[in-house]
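Hey,
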Amino acid sequence: MQVSFIGLGIMGSRMAANLLEKHKALTVFNRSAESIQKLVKQGAVAANSYRDAVNDADVVFTMLACPEVVEKVAFSQIGFLPAMQKNAIWVDCSTVNPSFSQKSCLLAKECGIRFMDAPVSGTKPNAENADLAFIVGAEEDDLATVKPLLEHMGQRIMHVGKPGKGTAFKILVNSLLAQSMLALSENILLGEKLGFSRDFLLD
């Protein structure tokens, strides 16, 4: 199976390194060359462009910063989507809004591409240690194809529904995290007013 990875930032570079270690054959591309070279030294193949990265790929992973970047990388005049093989699978691990994932799915279908959204729960250490949780929106057959690759990068794969549902569920996770942080902050402030030190409360 030919696999490509686009987006080699803090998370993507570590995910790609774990994928490369287990799967061996991996083509990579990133806007900055430094991240590419690190993976090339580990055995990855460097592509010359977004489109070059996906030409012969059966599965393409993207891990990008925001919807605007995915828009440019996938759908613009230099975007990779039209260059993908028919019936290949695009797995977008970027954290984007649900409506954007639905748009990505529709545009992929128009090009004869299968689409999965698989945002992650976890941070840099989880990515480095292949300990991420993937929240997946996908058709069952597509997930069955990609699951062994996801398992090289994470410990938990949660299939929450059809394409688009992964990013929808990730929004709920992020919302819960934000509310927990707010509640913690409010309680620390209250604790300080009641005479406790901030260090004591944080401990």
